[in-house]
Specification:
single chain, alpha/beta, Rossmann fold, 3-stranded antiparallel β-sheet, 17% strand, globular
Length: 265
C-alpha cells in the first residue's frame, strides 16, 4: 500500500458547529489501518465517505483530475480544512496518482480539448508569421505535443459517451505506482464498464503495487478479490466483508425476488 493508516490528530471544538465537524463520522473517527492495495469506502449518502476521501486527497497532494487545482476548488474547501487535522502514515510517499470524482471528468475533458485548441492556434500563428528557416523544425515540437494529447486521450473526449470517455481517462492516467483516489466511478459507467474498470485496477495492482481507495455504492466494483471494505454506518467505520453491506444484500434480494421487494416498499 501507499497509505498504511489514517487518524484524526485532534478535534477543533471551536469549529464543532461547522461542516465537516458536524459529521458524526468525523467526531467518532478512530484510526483506520489500510492492509490491502484496494480499499473501498462504502456507506449511505451523507455518511462522510466522500469527505474523508477528499481530505486524503488534500493531505497527500495528488493532482485533482478536473479543471481546478485541488486547493482552488471551492467544493473541496471542507476537505482541505479536514486535511489540516489528519495524520496519514505512508508506507511509501508519492505524489504520483490522482483524485477524481465523476463530475470532475467533464472539466477534465474540456481542459484537454482547450489545450489541443491552443496548440492548433499556435501552429496557425507560426505558419502565418514565419519567415525564413525550416518551419518543420519550428512546428515539430508543437505538433508532437498535440499528437501526444491525441494519442493519450483521443482527439475529442467530449465526443465519446460519458462511459467511454471515463474509461479512456482511466486507461490513460493509471500509469506507474501511485495513489489513486476515486469517488463513485459507477456514476458514469455501465455494469460492463464497471467490470472493465475493476479488471484494469486489478491489473495495475499486480503490475505496480499501486494503492486504490474508492468510494462506491456499486456491489460490482466492491466485489474485487483481495480488497478491504470500510463500512460507514451509524457514525462509525468498521471493516466488513462486502456481502455484509446493505448495498450487496439489497441488490441480491432484488435480483432473487423483485416482486417480494416491491411489495415491501
Amino acid at each position: 500500500m501507499i497509505i498504511s493508516s489514517l487518524r484524526l490528530r485532534n478535534f477543533p471544538e471551536e469549529e464543532a458547529e461547522k461542516f465537516p465537524w458536524t459529521l458524526p463520522i468525523i467526531k467518532n473517527l478512530e484510526e483506520l489501518e489500510f492492509e490491502k492495495n484496494i480499499s473501498f469506502f462504502v456507506g449511505e449518502n451523507g455518511s462522510g465517505k466522500s469527505t474523508i476521501l477528499e481530505a486524503i486527497a488534500a493531505y497527500s497532494e495528488v493532482p485533482l483530475a478536473g479543471s481546478f487545482r485541488l486547493e482552488e476548488d471551492e467544493s473541496l474547501a471542507a476537505a482541505n480544512e479536514l486535511a489540516n487535522y489528519l495524520y496519514l502514515r505512508f508506507a511509501e510517499k508519492t505524489h504520483h496518482g490522482f483524485f477524481v470524482r465523476a463530475e470532475d471528468f467533464i472539466g477534465f475533458s474540456r481542459n484537454i480539448k482547450n489545450q489541443i485548441k491552443a496548440l492548433d492556434k499556435e501552429i496557425e500563428e507560426i505558419k502565418a508569421n514565419f519567415e525564413g528557416g525550416d518551419i518543420k523544425l519550428m512546428l515539430g515540437p508543437i505538433k508532437g505535443e498535440k499528437q501526444n494529447f491525441i494519442n493519450r486521450y483521443s482527439h475529442d473526449l467530449e465526443a465519446m459517451s460519458h462511459g467511454e470517455g471515463f474509461m479512456k481517462f482511466f486507461t490513460s492516467r493509471i500509469t506507474g505506482k501511485g495513489l489513486y483516489l476515486i469517488d463513485e466511478p459507477e456514476a458514469a459507467l455501465s455494469p460492463t464498464r464497471q467490470l472493465s474498470l475493476l479488471s484494469l485496477i486489478l491489473e495495475k495492482v499486480k503490475q505496480t503495487g499501486s494503492h486504490f481507495i474508492i468510494a462506491t455504492h456499486s456491489p460490482i466494483i466492491m466485489s474485487s478479490p483481495d480488497s478491504e471494505v470500510f463500512y460507514f454506518q451509524d457514525g462509525s467505520i468498521s471493516k466488513v466483508n462486502y456481502q455484509e453491506t446493505e448495498h450487496y444484500q439489497l441488490t441480491k434480494a432484488i435480483l432473487e425476488n423483485p416482486e417480494l421487494v416491491m411489495k415491501e416498499l
